[in-house]
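Summary for the steering committee. The consortium agreed at its last meeting that each partner would contribute one worked example illustrating the joint modelling workflow. Our contribution is presented below. We chose a case with several input lines so that the handling of multiple components could be demonstrated. No manual editing was applied between input and output; the record is shown as generated.
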Amino acid sequence: EIVLTQSPATLSLSPGERATLSCRASQSVDSYLAWYQQKPGQAPRLLIYDASKRATGIPARFSGSGSGTDFSLTISSLEPEDFAVYYCQQRSNWPPLTFGGGTKVEIK
Amino acid sequence: EVQLVESGGGVVQPGGSLRLSCAASGFTFNSFEMNWLRQTPGKRLEWISYISFSGTTVYYADSVKGRFSVSRDNAKNSLFLQMNSLRVDDTALYYCARFGDGYSGGLFDSWGQGTLVTVSS
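What follows is the complete predicted structure of the assembly.
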């Protein structure tokens, strides 16, 4: 099973600041890494897939990068609606499909 | 509009059983592979089961293998999860989710709002 480790657990930032979230895989997942956003009381929403491709309707301020075992999600300038929990997920080698533990982006 | 609506959650004692349902609408159900996932009280997300278009192929996470069974009824646009021998650590919010179209599998593009399962004596 591929284990995904996200860091930091919590990121405290102000609106307008840049956010950089990290996801590290226990073995290579090539580029088969996705990012989801979850707001309180809502289901996760797909943001980024295959490391760097934005899903339909996702604003350009969200970008992803990386390959192999190290990935990042960048939010170029935080909007109020971006404060949420973000999860990475791999689909390189499944079953099982696995998720990271999440990074909470909170308002400083 | 794509809609997935889960039902069937509740409080059950350890060792008990529950059957979850997911009603799908707004898309051609038999053209999509479906999954069950869960989110623990600590907010950890876990994929637990997959079922192919026709239901002939199923996969399970090790944590539920042998205890849970996934099925679907394409005529009724419904997905099911039969959960037996429930344990305290099965307590979670259970989601149904479909694999997105055109991604070659493994990505969840639509999710329900979840149904809560609590296993407690």
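Chain A has a mean pLDDT of 97. Chain A has no helices and eleven strands.
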